[in-house]
Amino acid sequence: MPAPRAAISGRQGRGMWILASVILFSGVFVLTHLPPGTVAADLGSSGADKVAHAAAYGLLTWLLLKSSGSRMLSPRTLLLILFLVVFGGLDEYTQPLVGRTASWFDWLADCAGVAFGSLAWCSPASLISHRAGFRHQ
User: How many helices (H) and strands (E) would you count in the chain?
Assistant: First the structure.
């Protein structure tokens, strides 16, 4: 029977979170800039596209905050959140360059995802550890 693997922690663990963040960040940008007629662009107006926007930005927010090593409400955390909100706006703004339409509602769904991802990152266990002065792990 093989020995159990040690949990990934420290720099190696943080590096994996950063890699996952970069991959998802790149994927979000590529998928939102595919020309009309592609699978990602054809989610329709049934609301599925808004759910996809919120889910992608929620996961992206959680991953970036997880990989940042930031404390809650630190300047770094707030800067990352602001960055994601601005990126969502720029993402929408540049979509007409590939023949897609920009949508305020898509950007609002991105912002909702950022809010949900931030809240998920701020779990009750995280609140306790931050009050004790520990970094978010």
Answer: 5, 0
Cα separation, 76 vs 15, whole angstroms: 18
Residue 116 DSSP class: H
* 98 within some domain: yes
Per-residue model confidence as pLDDT tens digits over 30-76: 888 888 777 655 566 667 889 989 999 999 999 998 888 777 778 88
Residues with Cβ within 8 Å of 20's Cβ and at least 6 positions away in sequence, in order, are: 63, 67
Sign for the pseudo-dihedral over CA of 116, 117, 118, 122: positive
* Nearest CA-CA partner of 56 in 100, 77, 80, 25: 25
Residue 55's domain comprises: 50-137
